[in-house]
Write a structure and sequence with these properties.
- The structure is a homodimer.
- With about 220 residues, chain A is mainly α.
- Chain A contains ten helices and no strands.
- In chain A, α1 packs across α4 and α6 packs across α8.
- Chain A is globular and about 65 Å long.
- At the A-B interface, α6, α7, α8, α9 and α10 of A face α6, α7, α8, α9 and α10 of B.
- Chain A binds a DNA duplex (30 and 30 nucleotides) through α1 and α3.
Chain lengths: ~220, ~220
DNA sequence: CAAATTTTTGACCGATTGGACAAACGTTAG
DNA sequence: CTAACGTTTGTCCAATCGGTCAAAAATTTG
């Protein structure tokens, strides 16, 4: 008799892998634990034992739901990318350009605040050369960014926005917002006990809005 | 007879550890190799064997110069921090504020271009919670940033700069410049073959200058 | 109920890890 | 030359790694 596995590799046929209630719950539990572990230790720095312990189960039990360590990481990555790019997808041609950009910045900053582990997981992957998601970067991501850069370029041509490089503008928004998730320890250490509390995201939001809209030149 | 070691732990007395010519050269070789390996794989993701091979020597030979893996990382970190904060230390009260900030941004961007491995080594450490340099962040770094933030605040009070949060301004400069080192793979993937070449740093410099000085609002 | 199936676990495996050690080798000073 | 010292390496070790497997335990199905 063939052995059965609760997990399904990503390369299998696209048909829904119909899972039992227990399988769904346990897989969810593992992914949650793995997000915690991977995001703070990186892929190679994390062990299956750590994830299993964080998920409250034995290692062989975990391997019953995900056959390989990489399968967990892959599943996590696929889910992440959808939600991670959602704010940029929402960037819309209709509406006032400055308002549109401001709310994109705000949404990205909220994601850094509410999903710091996802941000760090992504940062870890990119830092190490993106060995597992390179095709996505050159494909899906590039296409999306090019598309949005074209919209921004249109706004600039219409005189609604200062003329500048849309791609580097998007990079700057990513960098400044994700910084508050990826470099959180540093931000809190530098701000100190008094200013490093919960208010730091509102301070950041105010600052970034002013920076991106008006820059640093004094008025008048 | 006591065994001798070419390496000296950081906790030993501060006296110069007088080393032979060979020791200096080999230690330098190891640190160069370790920078390459650590910056792309993280601390836990790197092995002594990898570093030894990259340095062209056997593992026991490497361990003759650095007794533990951590000692290499620690030495690398200490050297890094000095040069890494040098641009901020240069930020000076004399001279025009906008010019001063512009050249700080340019210096940081040049460091991202010329020392990407150092940037990634630092990013790796912060991402994983800065377990090895936390005291430095709360001590030396915070002191330096507070000091420079006070200078910037002075400029703002004098009407030479738009009023905003100096700390978050420094974060934004760090984030936008280091992004081109830490997320280099992503930047190149999104820009594509034509625009992702050597010119990307000049494009970034132009964009960042405009962003920080004038923001995105259209003129007039 | 009982049979079939799914879930869980302890024991185990080969590979890799960081590091120890003594012996061999090279170099230098008297 | 030779003794002392500095350098290099092969070999080894215990711990940890990702992953297997068979059997026990729990659950679902008829």
């Amino acid at each position: 008799m063939l052995r059965r596995f609760a997990g399904v590799t990503a390369t299998m046929e696209g048909s829904a892998p119909r899972r039992t209630r227990i399988q769904q719950e346990k897989r969810e539990l593992i992914l949650e634990a793995a997000l915690e572990v991977f995001s703070t230790n990186g892929f190679r720095g994390s062990t299956i034992d750590q994830i299993a312990e964080a998920a409250g189960m034995s290692k062989p039990n975990l391997l019953y739901y995900f056959r390989r360590k990489e399968d967990i990481h892959e599943t996590l990555m696929q889910r992440l990318l959808d939600t991670w790019l959602a704010p940029l997808r929402e960037l819309d041609d209709i509406g006032d350009p400055l308002t549109e950009l401001r709310s994109y910045i705000r949404r990205k900053l909220e994601m850094a605040r509410d999903f710091p582990r996802e941000s760090r997981l992504f940062a870890n992957e990119i830092l190490q050369g993106a060995p597992r998601i390179m095709p996505m970067l050159e494909g899906e991501l590039k296409t999306l960014v090019d598309e949005k850069a074209a919209i921004i370029k249109g706004w600039m041509r219409a005189g609604k926005l200062a003329r500048t490089d849309p791609w580097h503008l998007i990079f700057a928004i990513w960098a400044t917002t994700q910084h508050y998730a990826d470099f959180d320890v540093q931000v809190r250490a530098v701000l100190g006990a008094d200013r490093g509390g919960d208010g730091r995201f509102e301070d950041a939001a105010r600052f970034l809005e002013q920076l991106f809209l008006d820059g640093l030149k004094p008025k008048g």
